[in-house]
Amino acid sequence: MSRDLLAKKKNFHWDSIFKITATCAGAFVLLIMVLIFGQLLSDSWLIWEKEGLSFVTGDRWNPVEGREAFGALPYIAGTLVTSLIALCIAVPLSLGIAMFLSEIAPTRIREPISFIVELLAAVPSIIYGLWGLFTFRIVFKDWFESPTHEALGEHIFLFRDAPFGLDILTASVVLAIMIIPTISAVSREILLAVPAIQREAAYMLGATKWEVFRMSVLPYAKSGLIGASILGLGRAVGETMAVTMLIGNAVGPKAFPFGFFQQGNSLASIIANEFNEASPVSMYFPALIGLGLILLFVSLAVNVCAHLIIRRVTNAHEGGIKGF
Amino acid sequence: MEMSALDVLNAMKNDEQPSTKRNEPEKEIPNDMTNDGKYKVLIENLAVSYNGKKAIKDINMKIPDKAVTALIGPSGCGKTTLLRTINRMHDLTKGAEVTGKIIIDGENVYDSHINPILQRRKIGMVFQKPNPFPTMSIWDNVAAGLKLNGVKDKGILNEIVEDSLKMAYLWDEVKDELKKPAVALSGGQQQRLCIARALAIQPEVLLMDEPASALDPIASQKIEQTIIELKKHYTIIIVTHNMQQALRVSDRTGFMYLGDMIEYDKTETVFKNPKKELTSNYVQGRFG
Prior knowledge:
heterodimer, A: mainly alpha, two-stranded antiparallel sheet, B: alpha/beta, disordered N terminus
């Protein structure tokens, strides 16, 4: 009898509904990507037609009608330089935080601190921008930039410009502060995911905590930690508000980042800063949209590089640990 | 008559035919021929609790030198806990509290002047699942413990790596590919690599926590052969779920249940002629 009951159950249409809905949802991602790309390309078409590839390689920026010239190179460089400086500051600090939280902190304080770290990741970037603009840049200029400039400015060209507080370095440091919570929260998860048996293998041999971390935890978590850093880099590349408020907003050839204390501009910040002024019928508007398209490509390139790096690290040993 | 643990041990070592009765009249273990009557590890009134919950209650054991002692019992009986107290691995477990003594060569490993990190270097451990360091080569895995201990001489390292791999019966299979990553080996080979890694630090005692449980029958047979060969040189304590395995490899067997050592005797006695009904039921597969 029960056999007949079982045989009658043929609710296979639910399976097709499930398949169709899931496929639609999946296709949605692709659709959005194509739409964004198409829109950016069509809206910036005029600038590509006029400037061609020199829009990417040029460094002049003049929106005045009749004398128009647009080149994106200083802002591409600005984006990459600020993001990389931010990454250089943020990665060691974040690793330290993650190591403390996963290896050293007693349970009592581990949870509260982890919570605070995650809370920091949720602070809107305008808050960081305001804090940077009204507090941090003044302190930073008085305590770090001016003394460094006086000591090293004559000898090293990177410190040559007279510090003003709104510059490449200030923007990078605030960017670093913004991406530290992201990188350290993800890194902590990755370190905690290293199996206990891996740690015990090292403990068994008589390793100290540091030795366990160095020989067992770090190699196991390496690809994941790189992934976490790239996640931070991705955030830094696209970060707009705080950078716009702090980077100094220079345009043209002098925006090319040659020194820490120089005013610069990033792709995102110049778009945010000048968008209001651009008239949709001039070349100005397509130029800004073109910067958006370049920004999209830079972000994609960062992500693709990240995947390649992770794959290289992971496949360094055949059958190695898949971390991320 | 009260005797300190050190006296007991010395008495054991000095006396060719020690009368165990004289030292510990209440828990007598018949002497067998495998170990000249010497004991390597003495466990005295050992109790372990996790956050106040008792996992092991008052265990006393004398573990013979250069022999295999098996710990059997149903899941959760405390056999792994017992094993992990011996190299102070339980120091790493949050909320674990150990009372009592574990005396190896006359020294209580829970004595306040003992550094658990240095203590672990004297005891090898093999885990349930093979856990080689995944990014290291076969050679580096075996040499890892030596390097930690400051051995830098390449010649010495090569020699010990070769010896350890031979001891673990892996040398012939890997001697031409020592630079290959350890994770490229099969599960059984990885486990023998882990044995070699543990042997490389020249341990006095080798602890094995179900070393063959994750392996296929052929690989686990090789591990068993390795264990039987190793006992010529090492004191081995093995936790196992597989009673046939305990019967095949061990000289002594301890049957644990709910944190108690129900019966500890010669393996033959525990399996063929147990004194307690609980033991008899377990080894005959009536529960567990």
